[in-house]
């Protein structure tokens, strides 16, 4: 019996793995700080609640610092003992860049929200939910099996539902949270059905093993495998706000607290596109003839619908600036889809252009939201007309917003925006998708209208007198007509901008300028193999 016992003991010991704590440190730190904030919120008196925001900032900085040892090489953990190449968690160049983007975006969101958590939002709940969502978002790009991928996606998404509806008593916020929740739950259900079909056809959840087994699926399981691939893509199309699954975006962004809208526009989009890249390029290359044409059509449809709706928003200057940014983000999602679709046709790794474009988009879009948050402090309706004369009132903020809009448009001095669009355009041309390159070129020209129109508003002379806004004032906000008299109209008092908001604007503007001066820092990823 002794040899059998020894053999059994040896077999049991082989199942015990050492955990690479350095590799999993970034999402782990975010999750640990979330628990610290949750517990601290129970004991801190109301006057000390702002301390939670500083704990959150420190935790996100620590999570970003934990990425430094991961900047070179590839590290994996939670691997199969029978196949060490099949791992559940891998930090390679792709995961490193997306984790930096996600945690950096969460850090800038925290800066935007510092004052709001003191005045409007429940501090403890907000910071716990933000850190929890950031932990899931940082986990996702390193996930290398479908189970971990789905769990990470839901950990990132579930707190976001609550963040959107965190403005208690606000009808728009509650409606936005409900729409976001219903659309996301539907997407998750469809994606889980697709994942179950893929597992039924391959018998594994690890992405590298799925890629191998899908290349040789038995004939009787071919339909199951193809259906699973399609349903999984549909689920991620919701997450990326690709048309026609984009309907939740405008109302969600407008109803959510402004820092949350900024977070969803960058971090939420990074999560969706990371998952989409992993399942298509890593897991489903054998079915490139299925997802390649589908993503190409989705890219063309998404950029066209997003830009057309944004033009309509810009044409009516009384429309919300946040809603314009929401439609702009839909159009930008179309550009981000192009290199992923091109990867199916070229046979090599073209998704680096998506990563490079995502870096540019994250910086400048967060910067635009930061300036919008600054304007909203004095003009809560945040309409396009509220930006008229911003240069006369706050010249640095106006110049920063103009720079961000020109980057999104792809015009100098926003060199990084221009080069990022060229990288995406080149990916389509090199893959033989000439028709998609033409659609993209047309959409880039169309987008110039609303980006330049908004930019021009910033430098127009301020209006001497404004119409009363009683009909459009949101609940709880004082009307411009209240207290009006026959005497001279009082000039609005220039409010002091909170220091964290100034830091957010300055930081995004600085990074944007550096990337425009040294575009190779981001465009480097467009020419390297990420997997």
UniProtKB/TrEMBL annotation:
Membrane topology type: Multi-pass membrane protein
Recorded catalytic activity of this chain's protein: a quinone + NADH + 5 H(+)(in) = a quinol + NAD(+) + 4 H(+)(out)
Tell me where it resides.
Cell membrane; Endomembrane system; Membrane
Transmembrane segments annotated in the record for this chain: 21-44, 51-70, 94-114, 126-143, 149-166, 178-199, 228-249, 261-284, 290-312, 324-345, 351-375, 396-420, 432-452, 501-522
Report if keyword Transmembrane helix is assigned: yes
Kindly give the InterPro entries that the UniProt entry links to this protein: NADH-Q_OxRdtase_suN/2, ND/Mrp_TM
Q: What is its EC number?
A: 7.1.1.-
What family does the Swiss-Prot or TrEMBL record give for this protein? Belongs to the complex I subunit 2 family.
Its protein name is NADH-quinone oxidoreductase subunit N
Identify the species of origin: Streptomyces xanthochromogenes
Gene giving rise to this polypeptide: nuoN
